[in-house]
């Protein structure tokens, strides 16, 4: 299959490019970051392909998004354009050209008031500008492209800025004596940390690297159409995730202090419960490993090693 990736400069985008380059039989016809393809213009993809900016793909994966959750509160119009309008335009372009389309969404489409893993068909109820824009993006995508695959994920870490990097930076500052006292981390949010590398692999599996699969999604009998959840297995809190990061990177002696989300005074509300149930993907044989194993894999990847060397 011939793949085209938008948002290739982000955490997931970089991992998708890496996974595709490593898979024999798969062709990456184009990987476009924000500077080479701004998705927030109607017809951006159609124009790119019409001008010969890339060979024709079979499938397009949109990994681009405006992901700064707090900034989305202040820049709600931008959130709407990048996270809702743009995925819809990409989906329209793909549908018109007969291309398969994969869109990526988030646990933030849910209210966060739950105690069981969210099923794929659980009602959405976003409480932030980011979540509302992403929920609208899902709707627009499925309306414009009835065979689109929408993959929701949560608590991503990979090459780029993320929670793992932030905790390591804090640990390093304490190690250097630049800061002291316990590291305060919220303990009242529960979710599924997910390695962007595993998510990329899962998306390729789900979207069908099976060469017999038709680009429009019908090759396997059970075509992966509609909403799927993909997250590393198990759940934890940011507090326990921080503990694991410190333990795995040789900073086990650093003291952690639990704190409440409300104490942080952030512009955007955080869902207390972000646990995604991944039943539909599991039924197709796509399962991501437990989050702690994924953390170790990330720390041992080129990006994870660079991060630790940077810190050290
Ligand atoms: N990060 C998480 O914890 C998390 C959790 C759940 C779901 N998700 C979803 O997973 C997907 C991937 O997230 P990620 O963590 O890989 O995000 P990321 O690292 O923030 O990457 C997003 C990329 O999109 C680019 N972008 C923004 N606006 C664009 C535009 N108008 N045109 C083209 N590119 C644009 C950004 O470029 P600039 O930086 O130059 O703007 C950035 O490189 C997103 O759909 C996100 O909503 C993320």
Summarize the structure.
With 312 residues, the chain is α/β, with parallel strands linked by helices. It has helices at 11-22, 44-50, 69-74, 76-97, 129-144, 163-175, 196-207, 238-248, 261-264, 279-283, 291-300, 302-311; strands at residues 2-6, 27-32, 59-62, 100-106, 149-153, 156-157, 183-186, 190-191, 194-195, 226-229, 236-237, 256-259, 273-274.
How would you describe what is shown here?
- The chain is an alpha/beta fold.
- It has a single domain, classed as Rossmann fold.
- 41% of the residues lie in helices and 16% in strands.
- It contains twelve helices and 13 strands.
- It has helices at residues 11-22, 44-50, 69-74, 76-97, 129-144, 163-175, 196-207, 238-248, 261-264, 279-283, 291-300, 302-311, and strands spanning 2-6, 27-32, 59-62, 100-106, 149-153, 156-157, 183-186, 190-191, 194-195, 226-229, 236-237, 256-259, 273-274.
- A six-stranded parallel β-sheet has the order 2-1-3-4-5-10, with helices on both faces. Strands 11-8-13 form a three-stranded mixed β-sheet. The chain has a two-stranded parallel ribbon with strand order 6-9.
- The N and C termini lie far apart (41 Å).
- The relative contact order is 0.15.
- Bound molecules: NADP nicotinamide-adenine-dinucleotide phosphate.
- NADP nicotinamide-adenine-dinucleotide phosphate is lined by residues 6-7, 9-13, 33-34, 37-40, 63-67, 82, 104, 106-107, 134, 153-156, 160, 196.
